[in-house]
Design a protein that fits this description.
Blueprint: H1 2-32, H2 42-51, H3 53-87, H4 89-103, H5 107-118, H6 124-147, H7 151-159, H8 164-198, H9 208-217, H10 221-249, H11 251-257
Main location: membrane
Keywords: Cell membrane, Membrane, Transmembrane, Transmembrane helix, Transport
Domain ABC transmembrane type-1: 56-246
Length: 258
């Protein structure tokens, strides 16, 4: 009962804050007579969202697919690289600086280069951008988790003469899961952001990013904000999916918290 009340309070708080924010936004636009091209009101955005709902869903599906493919590919590559780097010190010393350098590359520099390399009719450039953006946080956190081993557990496995794979399977991987999912939560939202931003630089006009720029160029600002709202909702959906996956994969943490 206490846990249910706590969950209800956790859900109610952000809803109340969101409603208060929207009410303040609406009041600011109406009382301050803010021009629509500066900031449209939430009611105007909602009306536009109803008007072009089908197009918004289609664009969100295209962007979501690019983000999902890049998220899965980047996570798989990051976990593989972290597993190898945790066991081979030379490889770890080579990959960590490369990951830091990759984190410093802005999306606005990558997207046009990939679009030129692979053409404007392919979704591959956008998925490559997402893959690279996702790789860094998952790799860094997974590597940290794999290298963080309780000395007592390590000594116990040595006393059992356990192999390297057995130690990894029963000690390193379970201990690294919280770190991995920390990186995955960060990467889930970043995947949507990078997918939307990558769509600003040409290519197929099917995603949210291209629809936002097109609507803004045509002075349809409420419609542009409707696509922005869809991008926010897509990011929250990815984050919630990562959080649900974490809860399913680490039930012992939920039981310990309870």
């Amino acid at each position: 009962m206490r846990r249910a009340r706590g969950s209800g309070a956790l859900l109610l708080a952000p809803v109340v804050v969101a409603l208060a924010f929207l009410a303040a936004w609406e009041a600011l636009v109406r009382v301050g007579r803010v021009a629509p091209f500066v900031l449209p009101s939430p009611t105007a955005v909602l009306a536009s969202l109803r008007e072009v709902g089908a197009q918004v869903l289609a664009a969100a599906g295209a962007t979501g697919l690019n983000a999902l493919v890049g998220l899965v590919a980047g996570t798989a590559l990051a976990l593989l690289a972290a597993s190898l780097a945790a066991r081979v010190r030379v490889l770890r010393e080579a990959l960590v600086p490369l990951a830091a350098a990759a984190a410093a590359i802005p999306i606005v520099a990558l997207a046009p280069v990939f679009a030129t390399m692979y053409g404007a009719t392919s979704e591959l450039p956008r998925r490559l951008v997402v893959t690279l953006v996702v790789f860094v946080p998952v790799f860094v956190n997974a590597l940290r988790g794999l290298l963080t081993v309780d000395p007592v557990h390590a000594e116990l496995m040595r006393s059992y003469a356990a192999s390297g794979w057995a130690t990894t399977r029963w000690v390193r991987l379970p201990g690294a899961l919280p770190f991995v999912f920390t990186g995955l939560r960060l990467a889930a939202s970043a995947a949507v952001i990078s997918a939307v931003v990558a769509e600003y630089f040409g290519g197929l006009q099917t995603g949210l990013g291209s629809r936002i720029t097109s609507a803004a160029a045509n002075s349809a600002y409420p419609r542009a904000w409707a696509y922005v709202v869809a991008a926010c909702a897509l990011g929250l959906l990815f984050y919630a999916a990562a959080l649900a996956l974490e809860r399913a994969a680490t039930p012992w943490r939920r039981a310990g918290t309870g």
